[in-house]
Specification:
about 240 residues, disordered C terminus, binds adenosine-5'-triphosphate, binds magnesium ion
């Protein structure tokens, strides 16, 4: 039996500017099962980042809801959302979002602070995730001094620090060369094998042929494209 990890139910998001309403997400429905890897593909402006932000509880829907393991995150108060995020969700962004003056290890430590673990446990988790992301050898380097690929691996380690069940990646390879992009995909394979639920938003063609099972869902103008019905139409 497939277990639903994330359920997106009739999700809409609009932004108001003056009298205009700009609809960014339009009636999105999607079930993502535990351990699945979903690749959201779509041109710039199709709403990928907005959707990931709402799944991750960084932004709220205008209507509709997102359930994570049956719990409606959009209904939680802010403080609960940050706790929920710290426990369940790791996020990897296009621009890494690291603190350049802190070391790699300190960057990875940050999301563990609200968990109230003791220092010994925190250090252990930091070490485990730096090793998993293949960047332990740079643990004590300032993040600002690392190469793009190395920064990305620190960002991966940070996303893994609290051992979340869900990993959200927004254009994770946009600032990487091909070699580092392939390394990123290797780490993603390992996370998939560990049973993580993964959602990637990208327009990188490397994600069309991942070395593990994944589901590509095209996004167009704020909607998910139903590939199944498109195929059926083409055949009839
Ligand atoms: N806070 C905001 N206020 C107003 N409009 C916004 C806001 N955030 C996003 N938008 C608009 O929503 C649309 C979708 O943006 P989004 O960042 O989700 O697209 P995307 O698919 O991630 O694009 P890209 O591939 O360029 O990252 C864009 O047209 C954007 O201008
Ligand atoms: Mg985006």
């Amino acid at each position: 039996m497939m277990k639903a990890m994330i359920v997106i139910d009739n999700l809409n998001k609009h932004f108001k500017s003056g009298d205009d309403i700009f609809k960014v997400l339009k009636g999105i429905n999607l079930q993502i099962n535990s351990g699945e890897c979903i690749v959201l593909k779509g041109v710039s402006g199709s709403g990928k980042t907005t959707l990931l932000s709402i799944i991750g509880g960084l932004d709220r829907p205008s209507s509709g809801k997102v359930l994570v393991e049956g719990e409606s995150i959009s209904k939680l108060p802010d403080l609960h959302i940050s706790h929920f995020r710290a426990r369940k969700i790791g996020m990897i962004f296009q621009h890494f979002n690291l603190f350049d003056h802190l070391t790699a290890a300190e960057n990875v430590m940050i999301p563990l602070i609200p968990t109230g673990l003791d220092m010994h446990e925190v250090n252990h988790k930091v070490e485990v995730s730096l090793k998993l992301a293949n960047i332990f050898h740079k643990a004590n380097s300032a993040a600002g001094r690392l190469s793009g690929g190395e920064k990305q691996r620190v960002a991966i380690a940070r996303a893994l620090a609290s051992n979340p069940a869900i990993i959200l990646c927004d254009e994770p390879t946009a600032n990487l060369d091909r070699n580092n992009s392939l390394k990123f995909i290797d780490i993603l394979s390992q996370l998939h094998e560990m049973g993580k639920t993964i959602v990637v938003a990208t327009h990188d063609p490397l994600f069309d042929t991942l070395p593990f099972e994944s589901k590509i869902i095209p996004m167009e103008d704020g909607s998910l494209v139903d590939t199944f019905s498109k195929d059926t139409l083409a055949e009839s």
